[in-house]
Amino acid sequence: MKRILSIALLLAGTTYGQTALFIPPAISGTTFNLNIQTGTRTFFSGYTTPTYGVNGSFLAPTLILNKLDSVTLNVTNSLPVATTIHWHGMHVSPQNDGGPGQLIAPSTTWSPSFKVLNDAGTYWYHPHGAGKTDLHVSKGIAGMIIVKDAAEAALTLPRTYGVDDIPLIVQSKAFDVLRQIAIATEDDTLLMVNGTVDPYLNAPAQVVRFRILNGSSMRSYMFGFSGSMPFKLIATDGGLLDTPVTLTRIRLSPGERAEVLLNLTGMVGATVYFKNYGSELPNGIYGADTVGTDTAFIPGYSANPLNGADYNIMKINVTASTGGAVTTIPATLGTLAPWPLSAVDTTRTFNLSPATADSSTFAEGPFVINGHHFAMDTINVVTYLNRTEIWKLVNHTLVAHPFHIHDVPFYIVDINGVPPPPYERGRKDVVLVMPGDSVRFITKFETFADASIPYMYHCHLLHHEDDGMMGQFLVLPGPAGISDATKKQEVQLSPNPATDILTLTSELFLSGSFSVKVYSLLGTEVAIPMEHSEDKLRIRTGSLQTGLYVMKIFSNNNVYVHKFEKL
To answer: What is the pTM of this model?
Structure first.
């Protein structure tokens, strides 16, 4: 009763569904000009709230990309502070990924260019600055990316944007006493869809496609429709499933996406509600009735009326169907091809744990991954191009963590040793790891490698990410860290790890026509003494700090890349 009463008080005096749902403008092509700017919004009568947005005062346009197109995104930062833009779920090189190491300073433009390699699906973009992700996303910098391809176009699916193909960016936000957007995790009591508070949507009486993004900083949802109306799940984070899955609920944690089809055929004049069935969320998930224990809890959590409650998110008024309406749902969709376990080269374990041994912090945090806080100058994982790996995630905390990896999609292998349910068997880039659970996923590091620029992995609860629950990984060229252009040249390193002197032996050094550069793993060139004699090159490593280094040997228009460790 407490949860129902609280929601009733929260919405007292409101006629639900009184504001038309805002549909973000869609832009397409191969060149996109995006201006990150300040703005204002009135979320509460009598209060003007400062906001951020892209090409507008709040939120961002939907980018429509075609697979295999080469695109350029000119991102201009008109904010008074630095920010970044990360293309969440997109398979791009680390130079184009938009992590915290790629800050866009005020009054400057960042112009990543890349070929679209993702399959058709729903992705998104948002800031990823170190320590500022939550604030910048909360203030409004978030937008969808829709990728189209020939395989999806061959299916009979709704795809008229804003008519029967509807983007839904669901967010809960916190505000301070002056009605300014805040990042207090326990006070995210204002719910909005596409930036619209108390929205309604006029949807045609036919099959309607909803692209649902949980863009909240912390809150998970158990989405469904009134009356437990069934719907078809057709896509998850990384694109289409092989066949539609019939559901009445879909749980999405922050960063996750789902494409669902709702059949409204023959329902003209009816009213349907898009809902959160929060009372059905398992305890331990931010948004459920309970997180933590009597002695380890999130302060103020129990007072939030949204937690553990069932409530309407959006009113749907069913109107007349459109011309060429889709009224059937395909029986088959795409082809899923998980990598076989026999192809796995490496298994890694990532322990999600409290930063301290103080048990009172096990629900509130801060949290770390494998005992380490995020540090810009630290590479936590090194892998190699074309390696297939299993990542095992073990949650030692009292709160569920949505784990996100950049660059590559993955397939969930098992949860506590049990294969995932059908709705979680598609390509993913975020997985929610419950307290005490162990989740394994399989992925392959394809296409892109760089010896100095890393990708990220992190908890997608933005407060946790900003507090340091994040790591960096490098994908190095070649299965042994060596890249050759036309022919292999053996380069022997001894000893590796090195202490004072590292000796390189190779026929490359006989001609004398070569050069060698040494870099830290963050790409900073390191100047150290070298001595050359016949086929040997001696590098004096005594002045180097302990850690991993990358060496590039340039010879005859070829570049050979090796790594070595300094003890």
So the answer is: 0.85
